[in-house]
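Q: How would the C-alpha cells look for this protein?
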Amino acid sequence: MYKNPQFEERDRDIILAFMKAHSFVTLIGYDGDYPVATQIPVKIEQREEQIYLIGHVMKKTDHYQAYAKNENVLALFAGAHAYVSASVYQDPAVASTWNYSSVQAKGKIKLLNGAETREVIKELTNRYENPATSKSAFHHMSEDYIEKNLKAICGFEILIQNIASVFKLSQNHPAVNRTAIVDHLTKSEGANDQQVAHDMEKVTKRN
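A: Here is the predicted structure in C-alpha cell form.
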C-alpha cells in the first residue's frame, strides 16, 4: 500500500463506514507457496473495541486450504477510482495521476464449525431477503437443502489487528487544481469518475 500521510484517513468512523459501504472484499491468504484470494461479501461487526469480518467460503478451493493452513489474512476493500489528467491543472506540464480509495485490513481468520456456519448463512440470507415477505428467506428453505449445502461451505470470522487506508483524492494539490479536477470528473459519464468527484468534495468540506 502506498502510504503517504496526506492520503491516510485517521478517523476510525469514516474508515468503518467505508468498509461497510464496500463490503464485497478481496480476501487474501498464503498457502506456503503463493498468495491465494477470493472475492466475497463480509459483514463488519464491532464488539467493544474489536472489529471482526464475518463470511463464508467454499471448502474445495485453494483459498480455503490456505486459510486452514495459515491464519494470517488480508482483506482488501476497494472504492471508486479515476484517472486524473494533468491537463486540467493550473500547470499542466506535469505527470497525470490516479485517484482512489482503499482500505487494507490484516487479521487472524478462524474457521467456524457447522452450527456456526449455519448462523452465518442464515444471517446473510435474511439481511438481503426480508424474512417476512421473501419466498427466498432462510426459513423457506428445506432442511435437507440447507444441510446438503452446508457441507460444501465453511463460515469464518476474522479478528482485525491492523487497518491501513489510502484515500488519495488530490489532497496534495492546491484548491484551484482540486476544483478543476472535480469539475472535469463530474462532467464524465463514468460512475467511478463521478463518485471520485463526490469523494473529493467531501474531503474538501471536512478540511
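The chain has one domain: 5-173.

The first strand starts at residue 24 and ends at 30.

Upvote if useful.
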